[in-house]
Design goal:
This protein is of the alpha+beta class. It has 2 domains: 192 residues, Cytochrome Bc1 Complex, Chain D, domain 2; 76 residues, Cytochrome Bc1 Complex, Chain D, domain 2. Helices cover 39% and strands 10% of the residues. It has 12 helices and 11 strands. Strands 10-9-11 form a 3-stranded mixed β-sheet. Strand 1 and strand 2 form a beta hairpin. Helix 3 crosses helix 8 and helix 9 crosses helix 12. The radius of gyration is 19 Å and the shape is globular. The two termini are 31 Å apart. The structure holds heme C (2 copies).
Length: 286
C-alpha cells in the first residue's frame, strides 16, 4: 500500500468514522434572492420518491462560505454571467451551411428557452435520454450544418449557461415516469453503487454525510440545480457531468466519460433528487 493511498483511507475514515460528529457543521440559514428580485427556493420537502432517504432537500449554495454565497446573490459579482453574455451573443449569430442562427428558429432566448433547463435531461422523440448538450449539438449538426461543440468546450459552456439562466427561479421539473422510468432506475442504481478503492457511492457522501466535512470541504447533498457552476478553483465553468467525473475520480475509481449513457442516467436521477428546489444555475462554488 502506498503512502498516498493510506492517507486517503485515513482521510475517508476521519470523515466517515467515529469522529464524524465532531466534523459536522451547520449549513447557512439564508434566503437566496438574486439581485434582490429573483427569489430562489434553496430548501424544500423531499420528493415522494426520496421517502426513507431524505426528508428535506437543500441547494449546495447553503453549504458554501458567506463570501461565495454573496457572489451568487448579485449578477454583477457572479463571474458566470460573463459566460452567459457570450452565449447570448452566439445565440444570434449565423453559423453553418444552412445560414441560420439559434434565434432564427427559437426566437429571443429569453422566451424560446424559458423553462428548458428545468426539464433536462429528457427523453427525445427517438426514445433516447438527452441532456441539454445533446439537444444543442443536434440543432447545430442536423439543422444548421455547423460543427458539433465538445461537451466541455468554451462555446458549449457559454450556451448552456445562457440557456440555463432563462430558467432561474423555476422549479426542477424532470419527468421520471413513462418512457423516462428505465433511465431513472438505472441512474438510481449507479447513485447507490459503491465505486473505487474507497468503496464509496454517491450516497455515502451526499446522502449519509452531507453537513459533515471531508478534508476541507463541507459536504452538500450534491444537487445539480445550480449547474452549470462557476468554480473559483479553476476560474471556469463546470458542467454537470464534469462534476460527476470529478466525484467518481475522488473515490479512486475508473470514471465514466462525459456524454456516456451512465452519466445521462445519473444526471436524470440526480436532477430528480432536486425536485422542490429551483433552478439557480449558474451558481458559484469554491
Ligand atoms: C432550423 C431551426 C433550428 C435552429 C437553427 C436551432 N434549433 Fe434548436 N430546436 C429546433 C427544433 C425543431 C427543436 C425541437 C426538437 C425536438 O423536440 O426533438 C429544437 C430543440 C432545441 C432544444 C431543446 C428544447 C426543448 O425544450 O426540448 C435546445 C436546447 C435547442 N434547440 C437549442 C438550440 C441552440 C443553442 C441553437 C443554436 C446553436 C439551435 N437550437 C438552433 C430547431 C432549431
Ligand atoms: C468522497 C465523497 C464524495 C463522493 C463519493 C461523491 N462526491 Fe460529489 N462532492 C463531494 C465533495 C467534497 C463536493 C464539494 C462540496 C459539496 O458540494 O458537497 C461534491 C460536490 C458534488 C456536486 C456539486 C454540488 C454543488 O451544489 O455544487 C455534485 C452535483 C456531486 N458532488 C455529485 C456527486 C455524484 C453524482 C456522485 C456519485 C457518482 C458523487 N458526487 C460522489 C464529495 C463526494
Amino acid at each position: 500500500m502506498t503512502l498516498r493511498f493510506s492517507r486517503t483511507i485515513l482521510a475517508a475514515t476521519a470523515a466517515f468514522g467515529l469522529s464524524a460528529m465532531a466534523l459536522h457543521a451547520e449549513m447557512a440559514n439564508d434566503e437566496l434572492n438574486i439581485n434582490g428580485d429573483l427569489p430562489i427556493t434553496v430548501k424544500a420537502p423531499a420528493a415522494e420518491h426520496l421517502k426513507g432517504h431524505l426528508d428535506e432537500v437543500y441547494s449546495g449554495w447553503l453549504f458554501r462560505s458567506d463570501e461565495t454565497r454573496a457572489m451568487e446573490q448579485d449578477d454583477f459579482d457572479n463571474p458566470i454571467m460573463i459566460f452567459a453574455e457570450q452565449g447570448m451573443e452566439t445565440w444570434d449569430k449565423v453559423d453553418g451551411t444552412a445560414g441560420k442562427s439559434c434565434a432564427d428558429c427559437h426566437g429571443a432566448i429569453e422566451e424560446g428557452m424559458k423553462g428548458v433547463r428545468a426539464t433536462m435531461p429528457k427523453v427525445n422523440s427517438k426514445g433516447e435520454l438527452w441532456s441539454m448538450e445533446d439537444y444543442i449539438n443536434d440543432c447545430r449538426t442536423n439543422r444548421m450544418g455547423a460543427e458539433a461543440w465538445g461537451w466541455d468546450s468554451g462555446p458549449m459552456h457559454n450556451m448552456t449557461v445562457a440557456i440555463t439562466v432563462q430558467s432561474r427561479g423555476m422549479p426542477v421539473n424532470v419527468k421520471i415516469d413513462g418512457e423516462a422510468a428505465p433511465f431513472w432506475e438505472k441512474g438510481k442504481e449507479i447513485y447507490y453503487t459503491r465505486y473505487g478503492q474507497l468503496e464509496l457511492s454517491c450516497a455515502s457522501c451526499h446522502e449519509e454525510n452531507y453537513g459533515n466535512f471531508i478534508r476541507a470541504d463541507h459536504l452538500s447533498q450534491g444537487q445539480i440545480n445550480a449547474f452549470p457552476t462557476y468554480r473559483l478553483k479553476n476560474a471556469g465553468v463546470v458542467s454537470i457531468q464534469n462534476r460527476f467525473k470529478g466525484c467518481v475520480r475522488d473515490t479512486r475509481a475508473e470514471t465514466f466519460a462525459v456524454g456516456s449513457p451512465e452519466f445521462h442516467d445519473l444526471e436524470l436521477y440526480v436532477a430528480s433528487r432536486g425536485m422542490g428546489l429551483d433552478i439557480e444555475g449558474g451558481g458559484v462554488r469554491p
